[in-house]
Automatic annotation (TrEMBL):
Family, similarity comment: Belongs to the iron/ascorbate-dependent oxidoreductase family.
Name of the protein this chain belongs to: Fe2OG dioxygenase domain-containing protein
Ranges for domain Fe2OG dioxygenase: 115-228
Alphabetical UniProt keywords: Iron, Metal-binding, Oxidoreductase
Domain of life: Bacteria
GO MF term set: metal ion binding; oxidoreductase activity
Pfam family, one: Oxygenase-NA
Xref: InterPro entries: DUF2086 (IPR018655), Oxoglu/Fe-dep_dioxygenase_dom (IPR005123)
Length: 229
């Protein structure tokens, strides 16, 4: 994993509700990680999106124990993100604070009955898309998550842009398209983020999804920090 400019990540998250980490994974890591999708024994469940009205395409949630590189990545990203999450909660006047270590946060999730792993790989083919959604899996919510693009845009696929919308109170929604290259990660708000207004901080609801794939195959790795009921 390359060194991450966390000041820049925090600044982009504060301003836009999302931030890019360029080159989080190498092309080689991406190809290896995408290949995991074909190993069903690594996963606890598979979801065909059109069956649930979630869009078109499919994904699989990893089982515990996670593959070691993924477990390490999830643990390493958590700490700096917890600092941002705690600052956001203070701004939003939400009482919950997050421990510094991911294992302590997971212990909290597991004690609350959220014990199933949430990291996943998504696979889109031509015509597939992911409807705008929020990855909430129970009462406990870690407010930031990460998605890593593992395929090469323009080469492996076309279309299939990562999109975010934000719903501001009593205002029209704003959309954001996040351009990603292979191995780039996007960090984004799971459900809401603080925005500085003229009369204090207000909450903006965020959703994310993926626009229709025009061609090829696109794999993403999703890293969610709370576990699921
Ligand atoms: O495929 C994507 O870029 C988005 C995946 C997603 O919804 C997630 O990681 O939670
Ligand atoms: Fe998602």
């Amino acid at each position: 994993m390359t060194a991450i400019d966390w000041d820049s990540v925090a600044g982009e998250l504060d301003a836009y509700g999302c931030a890019v980490i360029p080159g989080l994974l190498s092309a080689q890591d991406c190809v290896a990680a995408s290949a995991l999708y074909e190993r069903p024994a690594l996963f606890r469940s598979r979801v065909v999106m059109q069956r649930h009205g979630f869009g078109r395409g499919e994904y699989q949630y990893f089982a515990y124990p996670l593959p070691a590189p993924l477990a390490a990545l999830r643990g390493a990203l958590y700490g700096p993100l917890a600092a941002i999450a705690n600052r956001w909660h203070a701004l939003l006047r939400i009482e919950t604070r997050f421990p510094q270590r991911h294992e302590d946060y997971l212990a909290r999730c597991h004690a609350a009955g959220q014990a199933r792993p949430t990291p996943l790989i998504l696979r889109y083919r031509e015509g597939d898309y992911n409807c705008l959604h929020q990855d909430l899996y129970g009462e406990l919510v870690f407010p930031l998550q990460v998605a890593v693009l593992m395929s090469a845009p323009g080469l492996d696929f076309e279309g299939g842009e990562f999109v975010l919308t934000e719903q501001r109170p009593r205002m029209q929604s704003r959309a954001e398209v996040v351009p990603l290259g292979q191995g780039d990660a996007v960090v984004f708000a799971v459900n809401q983020r603080p925005v500085q207004g003229t009369r204090g901080v207000y909450r903006v609801a965020m959703r994310h999804g993926v626009s229709r794939l025009r061609r090829g195959t696109r794999h993403t790795m999703g890293i969610i920090f709370h576990d699921a009921t």
